[in-house]
Amino acid sequence: MVSWRNNLNSMQEKAVTTYEGPVMVVAGAGSGKTSVLTKRIAHLILNLGVPKDAVLAITFTNKAALEMKTRLYELLEFNTHTMWISTFHSMCVRILREHIEHLDYHKHFQIVDDDDTLQIIKSLMKRHGVDAKIMAPHSIKNYVLKIKTDEARMQNLEQPMREIIEIIYPAYQKQLKDNNLVDFDDLILLTIRLLEDFPEIQKRYHRQFEYILVDEFQDTNTVQYRLIRALVNEKKNVFIVGDEDQSIYAFRGANIENIQRFKRDYHPVNTIVLEQNYRSTNTILKAANAVIKENKNRIKKNLFSTKGDGDKIVFFKAYSERDEVEYVAETIRLLVRSGIDYQSIAVLYRTNNTSRLFEEVFMQKQLPYLIYGNTSFFKRKEIKDLVAYLRLIINPHDDYSFMRVVNEPRRGIGAKTIETLSRNAEHAGLSIYETLVQDKSSLSKGVLNKINHFITLMQSLQKHFDTVHFNQFIDDLLERIGYLKMLQNDDKGDVRLENMLEIKTMFKEAENSYDVDDKTTVLLYMLEDIALKSQEEKEKDPNSVSLMTLHAAKGLEFDVVFMVALEKGIFPQHRHYDSLESIEEERRLMYVGVTRCKQQLYLTNASQRYLYGSLTQNLDTPFIQDISPTLLQLEGLNKERMKTTLRYTQDYQQTQVYKERLKAITKTNENHLDKGNKVNHKVFGIGVVVSVNNDQCVIAFSHPHGIKTLMKDHPSISKV
DNA sequence: CACCGGTTTATTTTT
DNA sequence: TAAACCGGTG
User: For residue A315, what are the β-bridge partners?
Assistant: First the structure.
C-alpha cells in the first residue's frame, strides 16, 4: 500500500482515494489539481490493482497530457507512454483510426485545422456565388461550426444567413468527406457516432475503460460532454476536475452548464472542494477572491493559503504605453539584480498586439524574453506547404494537397484553372490526378503544358523518395520544386527554411516511435496527426521572461507577474461591455491572471496609448476597483493623482449626473432592434433591419451600400 | 495570371 | 499601425 497521506490535505486525500462512482472535484486555482489527478491514477494502479489500460484520462492540451504522463512516470516507475492519457482529440483519433471504416471513411483520413476550414468555406462561397463582402467568410465559418455541433440551431437562424448556411454547411461536409478529411469537431462527432450507433464498439470500450478522468471540465463543450457520456460504462466511475471561475473559453463553445448537467446525469455525485491554495500569498488571493466575487453565476469559493500576506500589489499608472513598458523593463532589471530569475517572471496581456512594444524594448535593453503563442509551428505556411507536398508524394489522389501546392511556388496555374480542375474531377467522381491522366481535353494548351510539367515533377519525386535517405530527399525536394529559390526573395526566407528543415528531426523521431520499417508508412503516420501536434518548445535561452496572453497563461505559475495594459476598452474589450455573460468571462480572465502569481503582482496601464495608429485615452479597467485599496501600493501617475481621483470617481458615482449618464449609456447600448426597424448608421445612412440574431443584425441600406451584417450594439447604429 | 496600390479592419484560440 | 484583401492594369 502506497501512502500519499504525508503530502496531501484531507480534501485532496479524499479526492485521490474515493474511487467508486461519479466524483466531482472543484479545484480552485493553485490547489494542487494535477497532483491529485496523477496520484489518483497511481492509487488506482498501485494500490487497487487496476490494469493501466483500464484508465482513461482526458485533458485539453498536449502539454497537460504530457505533464501528467511525466509525473505519473515518477510515481509508477513504468512506461506511461502508451497509457490512455491524452487530449480529447488524440483519443478520438486513436479510436477512429481503428474503426472509422464503419462510417465509410478511409482509415488514413487527414485532419484539417481551422485555417483550412476557412479556406474551404471561402472557396465554397465563391463557387455558390455568396458574396464575401456581404457575408464575411469568417462569420460563415463560425456559423457552420456552430451548426455542426448543434444542428437544432439551424431552426433559430435568421434569413438570409440561414439560407446561406443551408447551402454552405452541407457543401462543406461533402467537400470534407469526398476528400477524406475530418475537422476537429468531426473527430469528436464521428467518435460519438461510432459509440452510439455501433453497440459492439461501445461495449468494447466500456469493458476496457473502468475509470475515466476528465481534467479542466469547465472547458468541455456540448459534444465533448456527450462523448464522455458515451464512454462511461454502467459503473459510472467518472472523475471530473474543474473550476468554473477559470472558464475562459466560452467563446469557443465551452459550456459551464455541463457542470450542473453532470450533477443531474450522474446523480448522486460525490463533490469535493479544494480551497487551499499552495501557490500565492494571501494578499494576492484576497485580490483574486475580491475580483471573482463580483460574478453572479458561480458557486462561492474562498481561496486561502498559509503563505502569509506577502507584499502589496503594485499598481503603476504610466503616462504613455512606452513609459509603461520602460517601467516593466526597469523593474525586471531590479528584480533580477535582487536575485530573481528571468524565468520566474511573466508579462501577461489581454491581446497579442500588446506584446509588440514589449518585444521591441526588451530587445533593445537586452532582457531575455520568450513570446508564447506565436502561430503554431504546424500552422505556418511553409510547413503546411511542405506537408502538402509530402502528402501528395505519398498519395497523388490527395486533391486537397494538390490544390494547395500546384501553384506554390508560382507556376502560372491560377485560381481559375484550379477551380476548373477541381470541378472536372468532381464531375468525373475521380481525383484531380486521375482526371488529368484520363482527359486533358478541357484545358488550353498553355495551361496543359504547365500542368504536365508539375505532374512529371511529382512523379519523379515519388521515385526519388524511394531511392535516397529522407534528409537528402527533403533537400532535393525543396530545390526541385523551386521553393528554395522562392525563399531567397523572402526577407524571412532563412527562418522559413530552418522551419522546413525541422521536418527531418520529426521524421527521425517518428522512425523511432512507430514500430515500422517501411519509410512510406513512417511518413504516412507522421503526417496523419500533424494537425493535432503542438509546437515543440524552442531551444531558446530557458532563462527568459515569459510574454503571453492571459489565455495562454492558464495552468502556469510565476513568482512575479506583470499584468499590463489594464485599461477599459482593452481589458475588458469594449465589445464585451454589453452582456453580463461576456463581462463575467473577462472577469474570470482577470482572476486567472491574478492567480498565476506566487509572490509579487504588478498591475500596470497607461493614461494614453496608440491603438490602431491613433492616440486613445482609456480609463482604468474596472476590475482594479474590485480590489481593496489596502492591498494596493500606488505608483507612477497614481501616486500623485490616483488617491484623489479614486475618491473622486467613487463620489462621482453617487451623483445624479452620473446616474443619468449611466442610464443614457445603457439605453443606447440596448438598441433593441427588431425586424423592420428603421435605423441610421453613421456611415451608411438610413437602412431597414432585415433580421436580428444574437449580437448581429442584417440591415439593408440604400444604394450603393446594400445589405450589411453588423454588430447590433455598435455605437454607429441608432434607431430612427 | 501576376503585380501593384488603395482600402479596410482590428479578441481571446487548448485541438 | 500593419496586414489582409480587393480591383484594376499590363
Answer: A603, A634
Which nucleotide has the least CA–C1' distance to A184?
B15
DSSP A306: S
Of all nucleotides, the one whose C1′ comes closest to residue A250's CA is B12
CA A9 to C1' B15, in angstroms, rounded, equals 34
C-alpha span between A669 and A716 (Å, rounded)? 11
Instruction: Kindly report the pTM of this predicted structure.
Output: 0.82
What are A100's three cell numbers?
472509422
**Among A322, A336, A335, which Cα is nearest to A364's?**
A322
Q: Give A649-667 pLDDT, tens digit per residue.
A: 455 455 544 454 444 434 3
Which helix (H) or strand (E) is A559 found in, with range?
strand A558-563
Q: Is the pLDDT of residue A631 over 80?
A: yes
Residue A671 predicted with pLDDT over 60: no
A371-410 pLDDT, tens per residue? 887 777 888 888 889 999 999 999 999 888 898 899 888 8
Going by the DSSP 8-state scheme, the letter that residue A149 receives in this structure is H
Q: How far is the CA of A707 from the C1' of B1 (A)?
A: 32
Among candidate residues A621, A637, A590, the one with its CA nearest the CA of residue A320: A637
Please tell me the distance from the alpha carbon of residue A145 to that of residue A169, in angstroms, as a whole number: 9
For A363, the grid coordinates are 530587445
| Diameter over CA atoms, chain A | 83
Q: Poorest-confidence range of A201-215, A265-279, A360-374, A667-681? A: A667-681
Distance CA A290, CA A282 (A): 12
